[in-house]
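[User] Once you have settled down, look closely at the record that follows, and write a paragraph about the fold.
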Amino acid sequence: MIKNFTPPLIFGIFLGFAWQQFEWLFWLNFIGFVYPYLWIKSSNTNSVKVAQMLLFLLPWFAIGGFWLNSYNTNLYLFGVGVYSLLYALPFLMTIAVTKKLQQKFHVLSFLIFFLAVEYIQEAFHPFVPWFNLGNGFAASSFQIPILQILGSRGVSLMVLVIAFMLGKSYLNNKAKQPKRQCHWLLILPFILPYLKSHEVIESAKEKVLFIQPHKQINHQLKTNEILFQLNKENLTKVSLALAPESFFDATVGDEFSEFQKVSSTFKSQNIPFYFGYVQKSPYKNLILNSSFDTVYEKQRPVPVVEANIFSNLSSTHKNADFAICSEAVYANLFQKKAKKGSGKVMVFSNDIWFENSSAFKHHALMLRLRAAETGNTIYSVANSGLSGIFLPNGEFQLIDKQKLVDIQTILPIGINTSFADYGDVLGRLSLLFAPFLILYAFTLRTKF
């Protein structure tokens, strides 16, 4: 019995550390996902397979999602449970449909169900799609061409295919069977994107001022510290000023006194100023301009902390689009923002929630994936001090964490990507085929 339950635990731990230490252990995703192939090919009973599945999933989310403790322990336990149930669906559906199907359909079924679950999670947001497999490579660059064509779902499929080939090789060696080299041809579709070139469009250089506080009181900032720094900075030719979500140290009153202290500095220089603002009642997240007008309202939830708001974009700055915080993990949302005219998105975040966990940097670097997918240049400003500029060719620059106010000269670039034009084709196809596969299996099992 121990022999049956030790491997899923070990492979699940591999995945957990691949997400907890994503910058240097991301390659463990390839090793960790060898187990689903071994699981599919095993001859264990369904009850044993279900237990093995849970032993595989729980360490992944218990270790990889430990950053949720930065919110609170109850949310962490809730997250581990929800993610485990969500990613159990591909395993359970594979068990259901392969009972009557031929062995060769087992792997195909799992791939379709896995990608369909990822797509549903992201497109219809039952929960934040943080653990979508493609998001696990936020710190690496090799997948950039795949992202530009197939999006993060293409990276998920690539990881699964490579892991499954490793699993097949292992089983062949264990059975002392000759390797079938033709199976390695399955990797060719993921090599082809590297041969595709995209036109790079350069915009005019601009000087952008980032206010990125690294000292917080109740997750917020003392305004006088900003004013002190701005008095020292040369604002000449600054074309844009950005401040993070949860910008003030107190709720702005009728006089807007705290806001006016900062905004007047930019108004006197005719500098556009945008910042994120958390309303207390209801608990909304907005992006406001220097006239205190709402230019964007958050469209995605963070469980417990923020309300579930699904409003249309009210208005936009003529030279950019906007996003707030957890929206960074939604590839489909950013694909809709891929405005070929501007090619620029500003992201405002309240990353202090993550404190010093691995999610602190993971959240920021996920914007590399969104930039590559949509071909947009992304400006990110956070009150954790981890702000940055992310270019669609995979290059990025994180702004010095110790600087409260920093001015950067940026050359925005845009790339016309296939993902921006056509969206998540792999996800939609998986969602299309999944119910037909279930229906096909059901009809085979039904006696007329």
Q: What stands out?
A: Residues 66 and 354 are 10 Å apart (CA to CA).
